[in-house]
Design a protein that fits this description.
The protein is α+β, with helices and mostly antiparallel strands. The chain contains 10 helices and 10 strands. The strands form 3 sheets. The chain has a 6-stranded mixed sheet with strand order 1-3-4-2-5-8, with helices on both faces. 25% of the residues are buried.
């Protein structure tokens, strides 16, 4: 599939050089550039219900045997007018909504995805699908997935990174520091030794991942956030 370029640039995860980080960087680079220009954006977070447990094997095998995606799946990949970003079974769909036509484009793409899911015997977990409205003067349109209206959310956890309507990363910094400090406290309570040879490997395995997960996306910019991160990093040998 890589040789025939059947995997599109919107697909991240389980492919070489594409990860949570590349998904977030590529997607939010487009989103933030539009918001910075004054164009409000709506992001639709989609989630399949038990995707890997319920995917019909006969349909999957038919696609694999043909080695090329069938018409419905090609429509999933190429027939979307909005910006789409995929990671495993998590999908984001977004578009500019500075005009009513922008809302129509997103809704039509949601209708296409719903039809694709029905044909392929898949179901969206609509209780976990939500909308994040970004940018000033966002008209906050409503969208439907099938016969259900999707709920708006002031914030959304996107591949482990907390995004909010203001694209303010301070909440993510606080959350990362909280998790890191929790694990650091467990290490201090459970391990008597304070030698570097004992503490630093534990810190590297259990604490640092919370401070580094996709940090290129939420990199602290405010002094208070940087001070918070530095306090956690100075903590291992205290």
């Amino acid at each position: 599939m890589e040789d025939t370029e059947m995997i599109q640039d919107s697909q991240h995860g389980s492919t070489r050089g594409r990860s949570c980080l590349t998904n977030l960087v590529a997607f939010y680079d487009r989103v933030t550039r539009s918001v910075d220009k004054g164009r409000p954006m709506d992001v639709i977070y989609l989630d399949f219900s038990k995707a890997f447990d319920t995917v019909p094997h006969n349909i999957l095998l038919a696609k694999l045997e043909g080695y090329r995606f069938d018409g419905w799946t090609v429509q999933w990949i190429r027939g979307i007018e909005s910006t789409i970003s995929k990671f495993a079974d998590d999908t984001k769909l977004c578009g500019g909504v500075d005009t009513p036509e922008g809302q129509d484009v997103i809704q039509k793409d949601l209708d296409r995805l719903e039809r694709w899911a029905q044909v392929n015997l898949m179901r969206f977990n609509k209780s976990k699908c939500s909308i994040l409205h970004l940018g000033q003067n966002n008209p906050r349109y409503q969208y439907r997935l099938g016969d259900e209206v999707l709920e708006s959310s002031p914030e959304e956890r996107d591949l482990g990174v907390l995004m909010d309507e203001k694209l303010d990363m301070s909440r993510q910094c606080a959350l990362a520091a909280q998790k890191a400090n929790h694990n650091l406290g467990c290490i201090k309570r459970s391990v008597a030794s304070r030698s570097r040879e004992v503490i630093l490997p534990l810190y590297s395995a259990l604490v640092r991942p919370h401070l580094e997960h996709c940090v290129q996306v939420w990199s602290p910019q405010y002094r208070k956030d940087m001070d918070l991160m530095e306090r956690v990093q100075r903590g291992p040998l205290k």
